[in-house]
Amino acid sequence: MRKKPVKTLTVGILTTLLLASACSNGNNGSNGNTGNTGNTGSKSDTPAVSGNAGADANANKPASGMEEGPFGKYDPPITMTTVRSLPDVEEYRKGESLDDNLWTKDFSSILGINVVNKWKVNNKQYNNKITVSMISGDMPDFYQVDSKQLQQIVDAGQAADLTEIYEKYASDVTKQSFEEFGGIKLQGATFDGKLMALPLNGGMPGAAQMIWIRADWLKNLGLEPPKTMDDVNKIALAFTKDDPDQNGKNDTIGLNLMKDLFGGWAGIDGYLNGYHAYAFNPANASGTELIIRKDADGKPILGDTLPEVKTALGHLRDLYAAGAINKEFSVLDPSKAGDLATTSKVGMSYGEFWVGTWPINNMKKEDPKVDWKPYPIVSSDDQPVHPTGRGDVPTSFIVVNKNSKHPEAAMKILNYFHEKVSGPNKDEAYHQVKEGDKNYQVFGLSPIVGPGFSNTNQTDNDLIQDALKTGDESKLTPSAMVYYKGIKEYQAGNMEMWFWNALFGPGGAYSITNDYDKNSPPVTSEYLGQPTLSMVSKGPILRDLEIKVFTEIINGTRPLDDFDTAFVAEWNKQGGQDILKEIAESGRLK
Amino acid sequence: MGKKNWRLERPLHLMILPGLLFVLIFSYAPMAGLIIAFQDFIPTKGMFGSHWVGLEHFKYVYGLPQTRAVVANTLFISFMKIVAGLVVPITTAILLNEIRKQFFKRAIQTVIYLPHFLSWVILSGILIDILSPSSGILNQGLGFLFGAKPIFFLGDQSWFPYVMVTTDVWKEFGFGTIIYLAALTSINPMLYEAAVIDGANRWKQTLHITIPGMFPVIVLMMTLAIGNILNAGFDQIFNMYNPSVYETGDILDTYVYRLAFVNAQLSVATAVGLFKSIISFLLISLSYIIAYRFANYRIF
Amino acid sequence: MVQHKSALQRTVYVGIYCLLTLVALVCILPLINVLALSFSSNDAIQADKVTFWPVEFSTKAYHFVAQKKAFLLSIWVSIQRVGLGLLINMVLTVLVAYPLSKESSHFRLRTLYAWVFVFTMLFSGGLVPTYLIVKNLGMLDTLWALVLPGAVPIFNVILMLNFFRALPKELMEASFIDGCGHWKLLWKVILPLSTPSIATVGLFTIVGHWNEWFAGIIYMNDSIHYPLASYLQTIVVNLDISKIANIDDATYLQSLNDRAVRAAQIFLGALPIFCVYPFLQRYFMSGIVLGSVKE
């Protein structure tokens, strides 16, 4: 008997799959969507609400028992229901919970809004739970959804029109947040000219990759940091063959890679950028977040199908053949690929800014000689190099139920969040609090985690660099202060704080992305709309095709020319053309 | 006659009644939900507001180029798992039955069923390490013993299905053994005593008493397994496969997962589920009829 | 019944012992790995130093888990679930299996009934409609939602009815002649003879309830009502690195690294069931009893 057949047969594939389905759609975690927090530096004329319930008392009071304005209080208090997605690791301060915390207390005392969580579920199951709730018609006043769900909800007429509410109730900070970077966030939530949801992310494109290299290994071999792709390839080979860890064993590899192929750790994205190729379609994702580019005639075309990608794959293939890429990459997930780094088996990996916080964060503590450093991506020729940028179009939203009696209350909650976490009067006590040796991300307790300003970390980085040079800490924002202190502690010898240095230190990850933004801005998808019908239905098959062919080209089971015949041609044939056609007709190209 | 029968049978009907009610409420009533296989189901529109599309989803999945290969993989992996899943637990049960040292017997029995309690998510992590061609214990062992070249168990298309079968049997055989051990207990010990008097040795006793005694349970387990043939083990394969072994390792459930669940295409998924149910139903019916006709044995 | 053994026999027996020991060893290694992880420091785990023996020994993970309210609560929910589920499942299994174990000549509708039940093993309406029914019966957030939808485990019923059939028929006929009704026969004769099969099916039921996690997550509106399996499911982190957009996400990544605590919870979560097993084992290894009653 294998398993318990009752289960296997009865509930059968449908549930087994349903339950697993959310795993990869994990964008619902409060983690996944935490907005950038911070400060634009702009002046806001919003009244300070901190602890001051009477700030708006002079506003006129309509019959409904609600004061006007972005922070107008309800009297008598109202109740707003919502549902919550839980992060994988739940940690609360003593006496706090998702139901009762600093946010909910303020909402009821200052805004007169009692927030009630109808249910809470782990982020992996959030989509399932939303689906069954939708079908049973049991939706709360406001709730978080992804692009596809938003589309369905708007089509079914179940979302409240927030256009007027936005005009009337959005605070200055909220407006600035939604309208930054050309209002790309607002656009993503607008249907037929009406604002149907509150976007929770988007704005400045992120995800730009850099090259993480063991600088101590470079030194051991007398090598310089890479200037060109040739250097990258040479370093990869040297790290493989010349015993960079000087242990006398041939036990190292040059370039780290993992089975999803694309992604912020051990992905090929940044390597491709070196050859002016822009592609993104990880094996574990939905196959709908594509990098669309334009051909000479301005027609949409998939970045992954362009000849530059073939060139880059050819070089990766050579590296693999020379043993400079892990032979087992096709079975390793990011976490297993991470183990290669933490066990000092690999010395170079393309990755995003956060690599310093995971997976290599503990290595410095274990062995101070280990010296991982981020370097900017490099070009293969004299053309400037640009990273791939993603995440500018919002993918996560708060929908307000059409039947909610107080649709504007959701806007007020968002205003309050922005006031405390993103605006000029922000308060670190509402963002991140350190108690004992634990950091509590208390902002995540708020039922609406607003997008704030997507360049907050970048502006913080500039402030930190100045402070590090001048020693003047007075200009640091509360969040920048936390990071700055971390760097100082690291410099004083606390190796646990190494990651702050990797992120915000001199030559750290954010200095590199800031430099990209100034000198070689990211290349983003030209398509600004939500996933089209064909993307949803055919995306997964096309993604499988792409990953399979790319993997087999790299590991040598296929000739390089299969790129044209087995991938590009097939991609167009198996539905790619339909996707491009829908995109062209959508009118949402940049 | 009829009256008398009814009086005799009435308690039997009464006994079955509570179970029947539960099944009607919690199994039959929800089956109405299968209609979404014939719709373009959209959650916000509900089960009765969605657009009807007939057999479109079935045709769609059928028409996909990979479907045939995926069904073939499913059948192949599943079939091997059924065979191995019968042979290994039965053998283990018989071997354990030979053991006279009660303590040893119990200890072994307890230990072999432990892997059942570790989920595939956890086991896959451990297995990827063990099976690694560069650093895995297994390959190092094989290299040391036979000088064999490292085998890329999880990345090689020809090895992958067999690795799935082996690891699945390893995880579940201890649990399966329990049923056969229970079946062994119902064999009349007098039969063995008689055999000993006739001079039969242990091997002969096993062959002529033990195995025939287990036979009904074996047939039963086989039939139930056959009904399960389109379930080749989603959790296991999902946690261990990768794009380079899709060709031989991708099964119906993982395929539909990538195809439909990632993008919440509930109708497509339900259509495939319904298709699987129908096949299972046909296979179970067939085995039931065969067992009844040829062995005059009703499985249930 | 084993008399003097020949040299060949002896070799065969030694072979059997060795083989079984080897097999057992292969089976226990992963668990030892989990155990070693739970007693190791996180840094050692991250540096991939731990295999079968703790490195930088520490009981920190267990101290941490012992204070973790959600974990302890979920164990209590699981115990309740197993208790209630075992009772309901076993009663219904026996009550359904007994009539179905009769021949058609004794119970004319048995085959129809049997198919009605087997059909539910093959066809399922799926998650959504089942959820609607559970919800409309007001069972969300209650223990009933974990127990009632699967109240009749068909696989166990089929097993049980086959075990019942294997019981000597003469016995039942004799009882009938003695004037026993079906109820009395089941209670007084069949059940006492069926301890091995009841123990087997009971074990399956217990393990099934202990391991099942999906119902817990989907029918419970708050994680404080989760059974252990659902809880454990939520702590097994499925890293999705494509969604990390800013520093808050990045620092959160670090908190996912507590592999020792995860290992401790996995081990402790399986522990109760390991303890139940040897206890039930007595019953399905005691076939001799059956034979002697048969006289």
Automatic annotation (TrEMBL), chain A:
Presence of the UniProt keyword Membrane in the record: yes
InterPro entries with a match to the protein in the record: Bact_solute-bd_prot1 (IPR050490), SBP (IPR006059)
Signal peptide: 1-22
Keywords from the UniProt entry: Cell membrane, Lipoprotein, Membrane, Palmitate, Signal
Gene3D superfamilies named among the record's database cross-references: Periplasmic binding protein-like II (3.40.190.10)
Region Disordered: start-end pairs: 25-78
Coiled coil regions in record: none
Domain of life according to the entry: Bacteria
Biased composition range(s): Low complexity: 25-42
UniProt name for this protein: Extracellular solute-binding protein
Lineage: Bacteria, Bacillati, Bacillota, Bacilli, Bacillales
TrEMBL record, chain B:
Residues of the ABC transmembrane type-1 domain: 71-287
InterPro entries for this protein: MetI-like, MetI-like_sf, UgpAE/MalFG_permease
GO biological process: transmembrane transport
Chief location bin: membrane
Membrane-spanning intervals of the chain: 12-38, 75-96, 108-128, 173-192, 213-234, 266-291
Keyword Transmembrane: yes
Tree of life domain: Bacteria
Name of this protein: ABC transporter permease subunit
UniProtKB/TrEMBL annotation, chain C:
Alphabetic keyword roster: Cell membrane, Membrane, Transmembrane, Transmembrane helix, Transport
Membrane topology type: Multi-pass membrane protein
Any one GO BP annotation for this protein: transmembrane transport
Location of the ABC transmembrane type-1 domain: 75-277
Compartments in which it is found: Cell membrane
Principal place of residence: membrane
GO CC terms, sorted: plasma membrane
Family: Belongs to the binding-protein-dependent transport system permease family.
PANTHER family: ABC TRANSPORTER PERMEASE PROTEIN MG189-RELATED-RELATED, POLYGALACTURONAN_RHAMNOGALACTURONAN TRANSPORT SYSTEM PERMEASE PROTEIN YTCP
Name of the protein in question: ABC transporter permease subunit
Organism: Paenibacillus sacheonensis
